[in-house]
């Protein structure tokens, strides 16, 4: 029984962070004409109706995409993501939010291929219906971690794997680390993007130690914080570990987060200023493991 439904969270700060970066990673793969494979192991339903009662329950998109999508000063690096959001809202009112499958589908070229995995049977069916006419996109109702074993390496020999777990089971950090390490062994040249929520500092240190212990190199760590470190009521921030990032992606991500993080910060702006004055950034970009 899967309790998590992304409809409750669609378009929140974590989606903005993850999807803006995802769009840039996919575009970087297009610098070569050779085809790529995009694998989304925890795909959700693809497109979210923000007027749905679940999306309205906490209206998380109001502190996320609603703050960003029409901003006049959005930098060029955010534009491909915002274009994908605007394409789903042609009337100029924010009604729909594209999840990672829709963003990837919008950016793909004729030669590229997408694999979408979703464990929730109903959600997988909604997703399959959304892409039924596109033969470049396959949807499977399965465990995303098992799919990594079955689908890697891809025949294209280049691609991006997004592992975007809902973290609704105990020991998910361990499961994620093990699945990632095994997948990397099958496809060591692939780009991997692992999303994670910021939990208590001890748990985060243990997660980082586990990732470093895999011995995998070239892991860029990106984080965004929307609440102070002692905040416990809701998710205080999240991160993305990007393995084998495209050349220059560290700088691109840093300038994207420098713009996004203050906009998405949820506490009093004075708190954000204090954090910054103590050198506690609301975002971070660093190499967890280098060359
Ligand atoms: C955070 S949501 C995905 C959001 C989506 N990647 C996006 O960015 O639009 C996580 C999804 O994973 C699904 N899920 C949970 N456990 C899974 C598993 N073991 N394998 C595949 N999907 C799973 C949940 O049903 C949920 O739809």
How much helical structure, as a percent, in the residues? 25-40%
Give the count of helical stretches.
11
Low-confidence stretches: none
SSE arrangement, N to C = HEEHHHEHEHEHEHEHEEHHE
Give me the count of strands.
10
Task: Write down the Rg.
Answer: 18 Å
CATH topology label: Rossmann fold
Describe this structure as you would to a colleague:
There is one protein chain. The strands form two sheets. The protein has an eight-stranded mixed sheet, with helices on both faces. Strands 2-3 form a two-stranded antiparallel sheet. The longest helix is centred in the N-terminal third of the chain and has 17 residues, at 13-29. The chain has a single domain (6-289), classed as Vaccinia Virus protein VP39 (Rossmann fold). It contains eleven helices and ten strands. The radius of gyration is 18 Å and the shape is globular. The N and C termini lie far apart (41 Å). By secondary structure, the chain is of the alpha/beta class. It has helices spanning 13-29, 53-58, 65-68, 79-87, 100-107, 121-130, 144-151, 172-186, 201-213, 249-264, 269-277, and strands at 37-40, 47-49, 96-98, 113-118, 137-141, 159-163, 191-197, 219-225, 237-243, 283-289. It binds S-adenosylmethionine (SAM). The site of S-adenosylmethionine has 21 residues, from strand 4 and helix 7.
């Amino acid at each position: 029984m899967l309790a998590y439904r992304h409809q409750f969270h669609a378009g929140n700060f974590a989606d903005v962070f993850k999807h803006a970066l995802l769009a840039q990673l996919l575009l970087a793969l297009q610098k070569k004409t050779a085809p790529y494979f995009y694998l989304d192991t925890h795909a959700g339903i693809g497109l979210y109706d923000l007027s749905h009662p679940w999306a309205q329950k906490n209206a998380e998109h109001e502190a996320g995409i609603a703050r960003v999508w029409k901003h006049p000063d959005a930098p060029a690096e955010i534009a491909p993501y915002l274009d994908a959001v605007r394409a789903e809202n042609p009337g100029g009112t924010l009604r729909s939010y594209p999840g990672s499958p829709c963003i990837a589908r919008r950016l793909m070229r004729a030669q590229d291929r997408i694999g979408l995995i979703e464990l929730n049977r109903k959600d997988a069916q909604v997703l399959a219906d959304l892409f039924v006419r596109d033969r470049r996109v396959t949807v499977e109702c399965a465990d995303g971690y098992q799919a990594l074993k079955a689908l890697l390496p891809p025949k294209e020999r280049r691609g991006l794997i997004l592992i975007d777990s809902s973290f609704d089971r105990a020991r998910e950090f361990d499961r994620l680390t093990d699945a990632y390490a095994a997948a990397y062994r099958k496809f060591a040249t692939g780009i991997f993007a692992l999303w994670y929520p910021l939990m208590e500092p001890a748990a985060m240190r243990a997660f980082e130690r586990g990732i470093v212990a895999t011995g995998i190199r070239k892991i860029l760590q990106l984080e965004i914080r929307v609440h102070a470190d002692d905040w416990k009521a809701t998710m205080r921030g999240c991160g993305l570990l990007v393995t084998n990032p495209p050349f220059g992606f560290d700088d691109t991500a840093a300038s994207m987060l420098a713009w996004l993080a203050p906009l998405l910060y949820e506490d009093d702006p004075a708190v954000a200023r204090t954090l910054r004055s103590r050198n506690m950034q609301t975002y971070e970009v660093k190499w967890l493991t280098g060359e």
